[in-house]
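WARN no homologs supplied; continuing
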Amino acid sequence: MRGTLRRHADPDHPVLACLAAGDFEQGLRRHAALAHPTPTDDLWAGQCLVLLQRRLEGLTLLLRARARGEEDAGALAAVAYRFGGEVERAAELLAGLHPARLSAFGRAVADRELGLGRLHAGRPREALGPLRRAWETAVTDAVAGRFLGSFSAALVLALAEQGQDAAAAEHVGQALAAASPPQRAALLWVRMLSAVQSGQFAQAQRDLDDLAALPATPDAAPLLHYGRGVLAHTRGLGSEAAEHYCASAAAAREAGQPETEFYARLRLSALATARGDLGAARQQLARAGALASGERMAASLALRRGAWQVRGHDPQARATLERARRGFETLQLERELGLTHLQLAEAAVRGGDPDAAGAHLARAADLRHALGSGTVLAAELRELPAAYGYLRGAGHPSASPYLGVLWSDVQALEVHLPAELTLSTLRRAGLTLEGQRVRLNVGLPRTALLLAFLLDHGEASLETLQTQVFGDHAPRQARDYLHVARNALGKRLPQLQVPFDRARRVYSLRPCGVRLCWDVQELRQALGLGGETGLRRALGLYAGPFLPESESSWAAQLREELEWSLLRSGLETLETLRGRGEYAACVGLAQRLLEIQPLDVGISTLLVQVFHALRGHAAARQELARVSQVFQRELGEVPEPLLALQRGTWATAH
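OK structure emitted
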């Protein structure tokens, strides 16, 4: 029965040889030189086109080849659909293949695509079976063996998903020796991800360097940038990670790689959420939402949306995170499930539910043991101030021994973090690198203002800087000062660059190999925690007004914003504490807030009321007289809320 028996592909086909070697252009030239190309000729040429990002041309050739009796072309057409993000169409095509008409190579491709489809859907355990079959065929068949690297890379992805990093590394090591450059790229990329997840940062960096040294292919740029972003992100280099994720998302969009763009956007949203830029996080989530398909992407989107909602005090945050948890549990994705429990712990601490927080952290510890490595969870914990504080304080291993593994993982990760560069702008300007003061041969307060403005805005034109930062100078003097500051930083602090984008005519701030910390960002993050914990942390960080010597309009605006945010958060917290009868805590916090702004009517009034509840009539009358004198002396009158207290029965009684 001709056409129904399994056949063997020709391992010496001239176009196949070019395809296996990664010389796709030469493969197309050989195909073009054929007078009457056969379906098999079209099979290999079609795949060359797909790998050159000419997906539609390649798909057309493959579908025609299949219609002419080349069943292997159907399997490769599924690859083309997957590359374009059309995973459902790829699955339909695979389901319609005739197994008896496939060569060993075709069967291996079909198994690999079946496994990758399950992996995309978030079912790595179900993916292992077909991926192992594909690999086994590749090590025994002459044609499939020429692509051992691609079959090994797919299997390694599934192994790494389940924490089997040693097995993954072994497969990569075996396949690398005979892999073509494109196959080496896939192998190096998946080993790099596995190395990051297991905390082997030096190995990950070597793989990225080797990957960058390979001949460029159209599909390499999005993954290379994404990989560099993942490594930088895990090592705490947020600015560098964001730069690479942005480049990855843009390159993936251009190359038609929606899955890569989706995960790059999600990671950008995570970075923005961590630094408190909720507007930027929402923008990235919106774009990611338009790209999402399948259960895994839906759960991943819910995880990052829930994290964003937690920071924004959205009451739906826990429900969103619970949706992500259920999704990851169904898919048996333990690493993502662990991340979700950490986010739920953050939400619980912020919501005043320490018991729930402890339970979520304990579940994360379970999953960390199941995975065999806690690097990814530790990196997430480092960006969750409430959960981190719980673990360090009430949840410290001495109080909850089982949580000790999470604390140990965080400490182990912090040992390998890059140097910390701190920009101080509250009360006075300062730059320190690993605790050592950095001296510049230029005015530090104005340089600190420039750096703070760029940190707060991301980028700015010369005109904006002249107006907002150097507004007390003539435009030419302001431009000269900007260049002097840039040169001074370049000479004394090369880890902090202020590059100029000539195409867009904007300046930005680029930390290089250091973790840049800004006291204002830390203060904002503390205020974002909410509650007594967040307020106490914020008051501890507030050393004084933002760059008090600066007369720029932006500095004045930021000073006012920070003070207002502290007082607003303070009054809300004081009201909550008073409602719970915690009067002693109210007194201490109110007095500290009045040191920042002695003329706040709401806090002054509440302090008097708390004195009355805690210490009685006499103490309250004495405090009322004191705060009234402050207002009379500074403003020439006493506000009505305090006058109302003076008219009260207890205030007039003797």
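The beta strands are 419-424, 430-433, 436-437, 459-460, 496-497, 500-501, 506-508, 510-511, 514-518.
OK
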